[in-house]
Write a structure and sequence with these properties.
Blueprint (H helix, E strand, L loop, with lengths): L12 H19 L25 E4 L5 E3 L2 E3 L2 H7 L7 E6 L5 H13 L4 E4 L2 H4 L1
Parallel strand pairs: 1-4, 4-5
Antiparallel strand pairs: 1-2, 2-3
Length: 128
């Protein structure tokens, strides 16, 4: 009878080296696809800009009062009557940080019920 051959136990390091090499090649190729910016280029700084509400936005104060372009508005219906293109208009809201969420939801529902298309809420980050 013949003895069974012992299988050589090879270390799986060759496979690991191949994977690492392929990853290295991949990152080298991917890293060179984007051209670097010109060193003389100076980017615009927006940190010093003053954040202002867009002129066509409906502002909601902490107590729930509505203002549009500095004029107090009584209701969502009266606001939509002021707009020229009332049908399916996109309304931008700027709510006060301390406005209760249920008031914001109520006003949004009133606007949607009165015929507003989309109601967009502008946040502090959006103004920066």
């Amino acid at each position: 009878m013949r003895r069974p051959r012992e299988k050589s136990r090879r270390e799986p390091t060759i496979a690991l080296i191949n994977i690492v090499f392929l990853m290295l090649v991949f990152f080298m190729v991917a890293g060179t696809l984007a051209q670097p910016l010109d060193r003389d280029l100076k980017l615009i700084r927006t940190a010093d800009l003053e954040g202002r509400a867009p002129p066509d936005a409906l502002v909601i104060a902490e107590d729930g009062t509505l203002t549009y372009r500095g004029v107090q508005i009584l209701s969502a219906d009266s606001f939509l009557l002021r707009l020229e293109d009332r049908a399916q208009a996109d309304i931008r809201l700027i709510p006060d940080r301390n406005l209760p969420a249920q008031d914001l939801v109520r006003i949004t529902r009133e606007l949607r019920g009165a015929g507003a298309g989309r109601v967009l809420i502008i946040t502090e980050r959006g103004l920066e």
